[in-house]
Amino acid sequence: MRAEDTRMFQEAAAAGGVVAAQLARNAPLMAELGERLRGLSPTIALLSGRGSSDNAGVYARYLIETGTGVPTSPAILSASSVYAVEPRLRGGVCIAISQSGQSPDLVASVAAARAGGAFVIAMVNAEGSRLAEVADVTVPLHAGPETSVAATKSFISSLSALAQLIGHWSADADLLRALDALPGQLDEAFQRDWSPALDTLVQAQSLYVVGRGPGFAVAREAALKLKETCGLHAEAFSAAEVRHGPMALVRAGFPVLMLAQDDETRADMEALASDFAGRDAKVMLAGAPAGASVVALPAADAHPAMQPILLIQSFYRLAALASVARGHDPDRPPFLNKVTETL
Fold this sequence. Notes:
By secondary structure, this protein is α/β, with parallel strands linked by helices. The protein is built from twelve helices and ten strands. The two termini are about 35 Å apart.
């Protein structure tokens, strides 16, 4: 099997075209929603999702809190679906993210949020989903069919949709202009050569994936994909949290993949990479200058909010290559299904 022949590889490669079409088709709706959210002036934002969609929610949390100042939190889905709690969310907004829109706990949580007074926006790829039925407004992700179990283009389209929504909500002209360049940048990002990290991933048994700010979202996504497609024990940490205990495991030869963006967090990521290298860890760093004993992975100069999206696109190519090299089929991870119906 060649990695280039897998559906994961091919679907990830299509992300640039998907995002171009999505941004154009959703532009009027997103402008309307941005104006509506400014008028509502929500006091809290709640994010609902599982798996890769939950990781996309982390990206949204950073953009919402830094762009609007609205306190933002992930929803505890089981609070409604298992514990039957009725949330009090009047004056809030709930943003639900899903590829399939079918998981019972997600649907139950979003329905409860709406009943509790929240304005509910569902971002979903599958048309006619149960999630869309319980939302106030549905934003189509327009990712098209995604048949590999490992989500790629649907995750990237979730990030671009969130950035477009939050750009209009916060009236951030720079962010909206940056989105115009994103489709072409995604095509370029998929061609970037991250093969210097391949041997380390093929031989690894465990590793850390580290990010900070919006980059923490794609660090979580990368760790998830390494588990799913490579059978590799990967843990994601923020650059701040990894210093609180997990750093003790980082010794000579321990692999660390670091995904940075050029914002206020980059200096801390560079310092942490130096600390890891000082312990003789196998450090692979994208998005920031690499010092001695650190493997540099190429990344684009772009708006800081776009850089995490471009980094995960480059990573997807690497993950498909690593999966096949480790003897796995990235399209068919063991014991996993495309639609997970959690209660």
